[in-house]
Amino acid sequence: MAPRKIIIDTDPGQDDAVAILLALASPEDVDLLGITAVAGNVPLPLTQKNARIVCELAGYTDTKVFAGCDAPLARKLVTAEHVHGKTGLDGPQMDDPTMPLQDEHGVDFIIETLRREPAGTVTICPIGPLTNIATAFQRAPDIIARVQEIVLMGGAYFEVGNITPSAEFNIYVDPEAAKLVFGAGVPLTMMPLDVTHKALTTRPRIDAFRSMGTKVGDMVAAWTDFFERFDMEKYGSEGAPLHDPCTIAYLINPDLFQGRHINVEVETGSDLTLGMTVADWWRVTDRPANAVFMKDINAEGFYALLAERLARL
Predict the structure, then answer these.
(1) Each residue's pLDDT tens digit, 223-253
(2) CA–CA separation, 16 vs 55, rounded Å?
């Protein structure tokens, strides 16, 4: 089977970086057409820079990286330096990238790619706020029916929120964009906190990265060391969830995940629950299903896949 054509839309972020590395290390499964950066974990000048840093770390300097939207559709930007550090990739010092940022706007790249490639052959993998995707859908409604699938990291239900009591960060930053995307009618698979909080780093899992004896392995181990300190203190857990790589792992081996096709609505009108993804897990409403909500993961299989693929870089 030919590798699946994908666009990664991202706001790196240490876990975003691992997702990008997993995609670059898996050319037999995914064909990365380009990376679009969006404001989220840190502002856009840093997210586009970080995406290029990650590509250079892996030796994939010909990967096309585009800068997209620098602010949510209708709100002021909320960032997460308290989790990811002031650069978004805090940990070991990283050199500035030398590979170029593409001149084209990220939204234009998404639109042109979906129009150019055969309908139903491009999957979008948003692992940050959904601003770029919603903007592309607003500007070019014709591309919506051409998307093969959206596989995103975002939302929560049983795990509730990580930025507010009721909302997950990616959805909270731009809830209007999320509402538009969830309502667009595109086949959509979501990796919510309910899955990612079952895929925790542990000391043996981090040591497996470090024992690769490669620059990539050492960096991923250092990133996870830095990244996990916040969630370990917050949740009292043995490690931190690697949220974003779940999207790429699903494209490589969907059998690692289990979920249900249900209705998911995004709250945009309430100050109390802004950005909440209201998942009709028990199907108690007559609202039509619009998303595959993943709830379980084979964590050992997930980390084995990460270790096997990242060792290639």
Answers:
(1) 888 765 555 555 655 778 899 999 999 999 9
(2) 12
The tens digit of pLDDT for each residue in 269-302 reads 999 999 999 999 999 999 999 999 999 999 999 9
Q: Give the SS3 label for residue 7.
A: strand
Q: Which residues are catalytic?
A: 243
Q: Is the dihedral of CA 82, 86, 87, 91 positive or negative?
A: negative
Q: What is the dihedral of CA 1, 151, 5, 3, to 10 degrees?
A: -20
| Contact between 115 and 143 (Cβ < 8 Å) | yes
Report pTM.
0.97
Block residue for tokens 């051409």: 146
Centre a 10 Å sphere on the Cβ of residue 119 and count the other Cβ atoms it contains: 12
Cα separation of 135 and 129, whole Å?
12
